[in-house]
Design brief:
Blueprint: E1 5-6, E2 23-27, H1 31-42, E3 46-51, E4 71-72, H2 76-81, H3 91-96, H4 99-108, E5 113-115, E6 120-123, H5 128-142, E7 145-148, E8 154-158, E9 161-167, E10 170-173, E11 176-179, H6 194-201, E12 206-212, E13 216-218, H7 222-225, E14 230-240, E15 243-254, E16 258-260, H8 262-276, E17 281-286, H9 293-306, H10 312-316, H11 322-332, H12 345-356, E18 358-365, E19 373-378, E20 383-384, E21 389-390, E22 396-398, H13 412-438
Parallel strand pairs: 1-7, 2-3, 2-11, 3-7, 11-22
Antiparallel strand pairs: 4-6, 5-6, 8-9, 9-10, 12-19, 13-16, 13-18, 14-15, 14-17, 15-16, 17-18, 20-21
Helix pairs in contact: 1-5, 1-13, 9-12, 11-12
Length: about 450
């Protein structure tokens, strides 16, 4: 395992010699930073990776519920579609280094992977820390200098170009700086938004930072009464100001104050933005998506007839999880003790409608610190998609979640981190020669 060295432990603070290799500093040891550092070193640069925490990759170790959803094998057009309006920015990076190249990269490093439902790719061991260990060994072989407990306080910029970074009042000279400091979610892993401040100091515009892939808050008590219940194969429709705007199908979970789970996280980005605009948000849950209204009514008629002498509450346990039965009765106004054979057609209609349209009003979302991904960040219009280089400051590059890029769950965000890190690392290593020729 690669053993990083605490600050300061060498002559990093001495000026680089004119004839020395390109020196690249990578700020941030997450997925993007790890990939960027190794690729820059492979391209011939002298690379220093600065990580503010005691060890790199802390967020990487908890992603995918500790299993690390590395990527997704969806084809490129579908893949880009999961990123929304800023997705096209990634086309150049994905053409250079996409899921096939990433899987080959891990295979060469000895990390076996497995592809699961929905095209999601995980390490075969199911253990995210193994991914970090693979990266640490690789960086060690590449000769990357890793320094932990070091955060970039500010950048040294002269004549519109990066000349170094200042850490603890001392300057590390460099030819290029890759900012890969992550977003502002999961701050205990080190993602505290430091890169946003540095980007702004360099003159970059930030798209407002907000949570994405975040649990939602629901009005009233129904969700809280079912806290801990997880449902599969549920269709969820999103209504904004009374108009259907989106839908998703999959798994969800009820929490003490609302909803979570993959299908909810997928819709949450759009919901967060709508809430910020003061819009009225409702989710309609179709609890029986495999049955249309006619087939569901036939199912209810059959169940009520076959179990006509049983109370409605007992019959509903054959249709719903136990935790939902009381909620269904309360929401429909039906009596738990009514015998199934005595249920009138109008009462059956109310139950059928509720099963297909369980309505929850969304009033908010959990805080940014609990979001899986940060939405917003460095405006991609100010970054060259061919190199990840700043269009404002020479020698400055961006990678990963710091950029205004965010996607659904399923391995898309991590692939973006790896791809932008790969491209930034390669570009930064080649940048010194290019700048000498151009400027």
């Amino acid at each position: 395992m690669h053993a990083s060295t605490p600050f300061p432990a060498d002559d990093l603070f001495n000026p680089a010699r004119p004839d020395s290799p390109v020196r690249v500093v990578v700020a941030g040891g997450g997925a993007a930073g790890l990939m960027a550092a190794g690729q820059a070193a492979l391209a011939g640069a002298e690379v220093v990776l600065l990580e503010k925490m005691g060890r790199p990759g802390r967020k990487l170790c908890i992603t995918g519920k500790g299993r690390c959803n590395l990527t997704n094998v969806a084809p490129l057009p579908e893949f880009l579609g999961h990123f929304g309006p800023t997705g096209p920015f990634l086309r150049q990076a994905f053409h250079r280094f996409f899921s096939a190249e990433l899987l080959e990269f891990f295979q060469e490093l000895g990390l076996a992977t497995v592809t699961e439902r929905g095209g999601r790719v995980f390490p075969a061991s199911g253990k995210a820390p193994e991914v970090l260990s693979v990266f640490e060994r690789w960086l060690d072989r590449c000769g990357v200098i890793v320094r932990t407990g070091m955060a970039v306080d500010r950048m040294a910029i002269e004549g519109g170009a990066i000349t170094g970074v200042v850490c603890g009042g001392r300057t590390i000279a460099c030819d290029a700086l890759i900012l890969a400091t992550g977003g502002a979610s999961y701050p205990l892993t080190g993602s505290t938004g430091d890169g946003y401040r540095l980007a702004e100091e360099a003159g970059h515009r930030l798209v407002p930072v907000r949570p994405a892939l975040v649990p939602l808050l629901a009005e009233g008590s129904p969700a809280g009464r079912m806290a801990g219940l997880q449902l599969r194969n549920i269709r969820v429709r999103l209504f904004i100001d009374g108009r259907k705007r989106d839908e998703a199908f999959g798994e969800l979970a009820f929490t003490e104050d609302g909803l979570s789970g993959p299908v909810i996280l997928t819709l949450s980005g759009r919901i967060v933005d709508a809430l910020g605009e003061g819009r009225d948000i409702h989710l309609l849950l179709d609890l029986k998506p495999a049955l249309d209204e006619k087939k569901l009514d036939a199912r209810l008629v059959r169940d009520f007839e076959q179990r006509r002498k049983e109370p409605l509450e007992s019959v509903l346990r054959g249709l719903l999880p136990r935790e939902m039965v009381t909620v269904a009765l309360d929401e429909t106004g039906l009596d738990a003790e009514t015998l199934a054979g005595a249920i009138r057609s109008e009462e059956r209609r109310r139950l059928r409608h509720w099963l297909k349209n369980f309505r929850l009003r969304i009033t908010g979302h959990r805080p940014l610190a609990e979001a899986i991904v940060t939405a917003g960040g460095v405006d991609t219009r100010e970054v060259d998609p061919r190199t990840m280089a700043s269009r404002l400051v020479r020698g400055l590059y961006f990678a990963g979640e710091l950029l205004d890029l965010q996607a659904d769950t399923g391995g898309y965000n991590l692939q973006a981190a790896f791809s932008t890190g790969w491209l930034a690392g390669r570009s930064a290593a080649a940048g010194k020669v290019e700048r000498q020729e151009t400027f």
